[in-house]
Write a structure and sequence with these properties.
Two copies of one chain form a homodimer.
Chain A (H helix, E strand, L loop, with lengths): L4 H15 L8 H8 L6 H10 L3 E4 L5 E4 L8 H9 L6 H4 L13 H18 L3 H6 L3
Helix pairs in contact in A: 1-2, 1-4
The structure holds a DNA duplex (30 and 30 nucleotides).
Chain lengths: 137, 137
DNA sequence: CATGTTTGACATATAAATATCACTATCCTA
DNA sequence: TAGGATAGTGATATTTATATGTCAAACATG
């Protein structure tokens, strides 16, 4: 069970953006270099983040990208779900009622995963990028 | 963030085994059919579980597989880690100290992931296959 | 308004996970 | 001890994730 590499890259790019003063732009090439993300790969990730409304982009000379709203208003979960979709889908959850549980009884596994997903979501909801960057909230 | 399909299959196969009386054997083909796991794929997963010491196998006519120890002594974490390895590795954890945190300060992200991994591990430790199958502990 | 710079989009390449196949080793039973 | 049934193993195919490359669109500046 791992976070996808794309999500990891996205989180670090967002942290990089959260470091600079609000409203200023960074170039993806610089972010990639600082965060050790493949230079040619980051644009693909940035596009997804932009479509999800998490960052703003500006083309052209002196263009770049920036957070679409204050770092304190963007959570880890926002970023992870923008990239990977909902947390921890397993087949048991995708098709409720057909849990693969033997017989007709309720699937204990299903119940367990539901609780765990909720916990993970709650924890990721509680972490915003201002905290990640400053260590304070 | 998802569980790998292999781990999902492995968990359901183990639940299937936990349903039958201790010591009796099941055939992988039957397990695959009941749990809707690709028939040709399950042997690959079974092999990993056997090497991890979680199941016993017997070849030949009337052969099959069974849990290597009582279902109450096998946890979800045992199975998930046998298949996928340690939980939730992200690059931040793989290379401590090089968190991609900007500057030299401690990486808040790192701290967060550590806590979350511990929580997930604890939850998966607390669920054994007897509970999963019977709903009781 | 021409030029250089930077992102957007899409096509392609590579790597990893998932799934299948063919063949071998082992075991039970007659 | 021969035959059939079952798992073991490694090779191969397929699908998905990751990464790169190419060119177009937008923008600032002179």
């Amino acid at each position: 069970m791992e976070l996808s590499r794309q999500a990891d890259y996205a989180i670090r790019a967002m942290m990089d953006l959260a470091e600079i003063p609000e409203g200023e732009l960074s170039q993806t090439r610089e972010i990639a270099r600082r965060q050790e993300i493949p230079e040619k790969y980051l644009p693909t990730i940035v596009r997804t983040l932009a479509r999800a409304g998490l960052i703003r982009t500006l083309r052209g000379s002196h263009g770049g990208i920036s957070l679409a709203r204050p770092a304190s208003k963007i959570t880890l979960r926002d970023v992870v779900e923008a990239i990977d979709g909902p947390v921890l889908l397993n087949r048991c959850e995708i098709r409720p009622g057909e849990c693969g549980g033997v017989g007709d009884k309720n699937c204990s596994l299903h119940t367990f995963w539901e609780r765990m997903v909720r916990d993970i979501e709650d924890q990721m909801d509680s972490i915003d990028f201002e905290y990640l960057v400053s260590g304070e909230r």
